Amino acid sequence: MNILSVKNLSKTYPNFVLDNISFDLPQSKIMGLIGVNGAGKTTTLKSMLNLVNPDSGRIEMFGKTFIENEESCKQEIGVVFGGTYFFNHKKLKSITAVTKRFYKNWDDKAYEKYMKAFSLTEDKRLKELSSGMKVKYMLALALSHKARLLILDEPTSGLDPVSRDDILGLLVNLVKTKDISVLFSTHITSDLEKCADHITYIKDGKLLISASKPEFIKSFDHLKEQKDKGDLTLEEIMIRTERSNYDI
Amino acid sequence: MIYNLLHKELRLAAHPNLFVFILLGVLVIVPAYPYGVVFLFGCLGPYITFMYGRETNDIYYTSLLPVKKADTVKAKCLLMVLSQITQLLISLPFAILRVHILPDGNPVGIEANVAFYGFGLIIYSVFNLILLTQFFKTGYKVGKAFIVASIPILFLIIAMEVIVHFPNYKWLDSTSPDMMLRQVPVLILGIIIYILGMLAAYKISANRFQKVDL
Predict the structure, then answer these.
(1) Chain B contact for A100 (CB, 8 A cutoff)
(2) Gap from A132 CA to chain B (nearest CA, Å)
């Protein structure tokens, strides 16, 4: 069963077009949405969530049309936009106290458990947390209202390798133990090597391919050069696909 | 849901100055003072909160909660109504008190009487309608929205303060019970305009915000 289905999503800006993006995320899987900076990853995620008004497209979440069931769908998702955080000067306990009121399935015990597991202190202000800890706090909020789908926009960008590995390990663990599905955008290919089951690749606003990781890698065999023995790595695929030839 | 949205506004979104400006309703006890300034503070509070909201990504936060996009607008409308009405309610006992301790009246401009509150609601209605509808065209251009909203309300405040100096309108400047009874239609008009203004502000702003790409 697909937990998320995106069909023919398009959005036109004066200098950018997101063109006919379609992909499906099966339940309990991690999908990486990749592309270079400016490829349209964030626009895709924002259009899915009605933060941006798409020109066309249909989003289904948990088998329901998102736009017609926005409130109930949002009850079951957790969203983290890496680098965009709210109320930096407020204490975590204030943000939590406000946020929890909006969720029917909020679980105080689970929240305490995650805060402890992530070594987060409620008396700290958001601005006092490191980037990695901020992502973890957002995940703690999402998990405490029992989100079934996590939508993460570049959650690992700007993090050191240890924090990145920590977050990715956490995502893998959540998918295994909590039956959660994850869609996360990134331009860091090593993130995908570590945890993605499926990969959706966007280039210049267009969908190149959306497939399981082995299929994805196979589909880029035509990029292989004579020296390449085995499969291409995701980094090689991305670099060879995006490489510019400057004639200056 | 409305209670949750208001709770969010008061606990996270409101700038501390908003609460200070609400308390400035007590200025009607100052012996000689242009009481129209009270309404200026009532407009400044929401403006500063809107600026603060831009800094704290408040609109982003609300849009990601399990609420409709229009509820982001509703939250701001509710906060404005709550802050302005609370400010006027706080000023009421001081307006009554001044009649007894300062019987000579206010030589500067209008008295804190029934008409004053009616004018205040009209001023707030005009400000809210312009600020909200302008701001929610973009969700971030609050400075421009404030300037556009400030110009008419400055004229309205000046007009209110000046008109009571003309002999024909002296009845608007009185705190005697019979004159205040004559002023009641101004208050009723103010209440009607405030309610209709806020409803229009919400409807127009929600429609405009729906089209905004965050």
Answers:
(1) no
(2) 19
